[in-house]
Amino acid sequence: MRRRLPARRLRSGALPYADRIRQIMDDGDTWCEIGAAVALWPITGETESSLSVLETYVLPVADGDESYGSFLMALRAIVRLGTASPAVRAALHRMRETDRRLSPYRDYRAFLDDEEIRSAIDEMLALPTPPPPSAA
């Protein structure tokens, strides 16, 4: 498994750029949004805003959408963050149990995509489940 760097290492020097990165997350461009969500976490140490953006690319694929490129990129980013919401975990369990190929292709590439995506799903599901919020 990949080694995660502590978020504190990057916070101090990059903190002035956090607001601009948040603007990019709201840009509407898939690749920029995902990249900004990945960049924001080590700067601020907060996972909530990054996860909310990344989940918008994971959940639709679990419901049958075929945007696997952005899905895989977002899923890998969630793995880097080390946590996921119960909704994402449930969606990934459903995807893992499906017998259809997880790929937009219908040729040999479907096998390759399916193996790569299922491997990323397994990596995410292997992460520890976060404790539920306390009712204080």
Task: Give a structural overview.
With 136 residues, the chain is mostly helical. 66% of the residues lie in helices and 0% in strands. The protein has helices at 8-14, 18-25, 30-44, 48-62, 68-81, 86-97, 108-126. Mean pLDDT is 86; it is low at 1-5.
Features:
136 residues, mainly alpha, 66% helix, 0% strand, globular
Strand content: under 5%
Compute the average pLDDT: 86
Helical fraction equals: 55-70%
Spatial extent as radius of gyration: 16 Å
Could you say which structural class the secondary elements and strand pairing correspond to? Answer: mainly alpha
Q: Which spans have pLDDT < 50 for at least 5 consecutive residues?
A: 1-5
Biggest sheet layout: none
The N- to C-terminal Cα distance equals 34 Å
Run of helices and strands: HHHHHHH
> What is the overall shape?
globular
Question: Helical segment tally?
Answer: 7
Q: Compute the number of strand runs.
A: 0
